[in-house]
Structures are given as C-alpha cells and as structure tokens.
Task: structure prediction
Amino acid sequence: FYHAQITTSALEQKRKYWRKTLQQQIDRLNRKLTLQESELEQTKDRESLRRLGDIVNACIGQIPKGATQVELPDFYGEEGATITIKLDPALSPQQNAARFYKEYTKLKSAEAHLSHLIAQGKEELSYLYTVADALDRSDDLKTIDEIAQELTDYKTGRNTTPEKGRKKGTSRPSAPLSFTLHGGFTVWVGRNNRQNDQLTFYTADKKDYWFHVKDRPGSHVILSCRSGEPEPEVLQQAADLAALYSSAAQGDKIPVDYTRVRFVKKTPGGKPGMVIYNKYKTLLGSPDRAKKEHKL
Result:
C-alpha cells in the first residue's frame, strides 16, 4: 500500500514539474506568435507606399526642392482627387519616390519572412500540445521519463527516430497499449510521440489501419489487419479507442480520421508524432463506449 502511495506521489510530482516546464514553452511560443502576427498585420498597408512612390514619380516637376509635404493629383482615387504626401526635405523628389519604393519592398519581404515564421511556429505549437496531451494521460514513471526526454530533445534541437535514438546499453522503451477487439483483431495505442512514430512507421504493416482524432492532439492508433479485413464494427471500436486516447476524451461523438498506414507520411522535417495523411474516412468515436467495452 505504502509503495503504491509513494509511486503515485512521485508520478504526480514528476508530471507536475514537466507540465510546468512544457507550459512555459507553450506560453513563450504563443507570445512570440502574437508579436509576429502583429508585425505581419503592419505589412498589409504596403500598397499605399507603392502608390505614393508612383504619384511622386509621375509628378516630379510639380514638387519644389526641400518641401516637407506636397499636394498632388491622386490618380488611384476618384477623378479629380488629390492627396497630401509627406516628404523628407533632405531628399530630392526622385529620392523621396525611391524611399517609398524601398519601404514597400522591405514590407513585402517582411511579409514573406513573417508568414514562414508564423507557419513554423504554429506547427511547433501543435507539436507541443501533443506532448502536453501525452503527459496529461501518462500513468507510469517510465512513460513520463520518455516524454521528459522528448521535451529535453526538443529544447536542445535534437530530433531522433525511434529506432536510431536509443543508445546501446540504455533500457528499452516502454510498450504501447494493446487491446483485443471483436474477431480477435489487435489494436495498439501509442502513449507518447516516440511510441506513435514507432507504431506507425516501424511496427505497423502498410495494409494496417491508422486512426487519429481529427484536428486534435491524440495517440496514433494502429488496427492490425494480419488476421484479415476488419468488419465495420471493428473499425468503430478502433475509432472509439482513438477518441478515448486523445485530448477530446471528455466529449462524445468525436470525429476520428482513419486510413491505411501506407497513406500516412511523416511531416518533412517534422517533430516526433507529426504526420500528414490522405485518402481517409471519418468515424464518430465514443470514449465512453471504449471505456465500457474494455472496462477502463
């Protein structure tokens, strides 16, 4: 009894520590994304700079040297409209036009750069949410240790595959969950991103089925087809398990995508557990039904 109490306490303390560390990473990344999105919004008005450059260029002869501002015809506006343009008196009219074009080009480049950084940041944030989901659902010290190692690798920029990541002499990784469905079909459920990668890209056969909750963090669930083609009832059971072992486990009628393993690819340069897939179908999974079926 006391051994169980001590183990539970150690598990909770370790999970709490790594959850706090992970949340700090998530908060930091969210702040960074907010700042980048604000900077991106500021690049949206760059067309007005190009137009100012065009107007100044077209009216060079009407601009007195050293002027701080000038009112010129606005041929981008309604007929007969004029526009007041602020100028740098230290620059010639030609140089003022070039200044507007230069600022326009700078903002255009900034938009492309920021859009890339934001897309990268959102992908990274999605990954961190999958780590958080796995950590919240972890129920033994070894699984938490593996998630902690994954998070440490993320912070240090180290990204290894399941097969190549383990050094000689180190303990074997923990095993995924396993369930037997109707008809004797076997289902494996990954308990962290490393297990997800191992199951999908090393353990599963190309003709097996892969399940994952739609657009949410969750486990990779593999339905083995080595004993034949599963009936719809078996597919539904696997979808129920995918819904249960996900961040949507408290809900009902959870959309779960499924496809053959051969249609699942690792995201190019992506973090552990991050994949892309196509030719999929969707079932509504029930976490409660999975709990009752497997007495969880």
Remarks:
- The first strand starts at residue 69 and ends at 73.
- Strands lie at 69-73, 82-86, 177-180, 186-189, 209-213, 221-223, 254-260, 264-266, 275-277, 281-285.
- The mean pLDDT is 91.
- Residues 93-137 form the longest helix (45 residues).
